[in-house]
Amino acid sequence: MVDTQLIPRGIRDERVLAAMRKVPRHLFVPEYIRHSAYDDMALPIGEDQTISQPYMVAIMTELLELKGDEKVLEIGTGSGYQAAVLAELAGEVYTIERISELADRAKSKLAEIGYGNAHVIVSDGTKGLEDAAPFDRIIITAAAPKIPDPLIDQLKEGGIIVAPVGERFSQMLIKGRKEKGVLIEEYHTPCVFVPLVGEYGWRG
User: Over the stretch 15-50, which tens digit does the pLDDT of each residue have?
Assistant: First the structure.
């Protein structure tokens, strides 16, 4: 996966590549499709949600510029795979999932593998997590019509947020760095994610 999908497409961060090699992706997908776990595609995980394509996980993680001691907020736990990759690369990971069945499954899997620095919360992720703010990095793993204001507020000055932003069925991956309270945005690759549902996202 790393050698055939990630490196040829320009993923260069050695820490990201090492994390992608280490985290057992097949453990985060349903058993009936585990044979496809390392294929170049998103896969269904139930509840109309997906585990993202490996390349998308890698590029979003690389854009976060993680050094090892950051406090990261992830919006959209899903399978827990992205949280596991983040847990390899950051100090503490707080990950929010609105669907309790997925959150419970991810929490068990992360604990089973040994990622004690990944904390799963059931909540409306578009509101962020005020109790643990501010965050050095924020990653949104669902399609947002715009980056929710509470998340910008909960991002540290100089911090980075990465998110797919756009229409419901077509988005652009955005990297924003907070400077003087405002996000300075860069635009990266087109993408398609499931919708970010919540008070500051899509309405169901």
Answer: 999 999 999 999 999 999 999 999 999 999 999 899
> What span, in angstroms and rounded, lies between the C-alpha atoms of 15 and 192?
26
**Residue 52 appears among annotated catalytic residues:** yes
Identify which of 133, 155, 150, 126 has the alpha carbon closest to the alpha carbon of residue 64.
155
Q: Which domain holds residue 72?
A: 56-191
Residue 159, both tokens? 């911090």
The count of structural domains within the chain is 1
- Calpha distance 191→71 (Å, rounded): 26
On the CB side of 102, how many CA atoms lie within 13 Å of its CA?
A: 24
- Residue at 9 is within a domain: no
Domain assignment present for 18: no
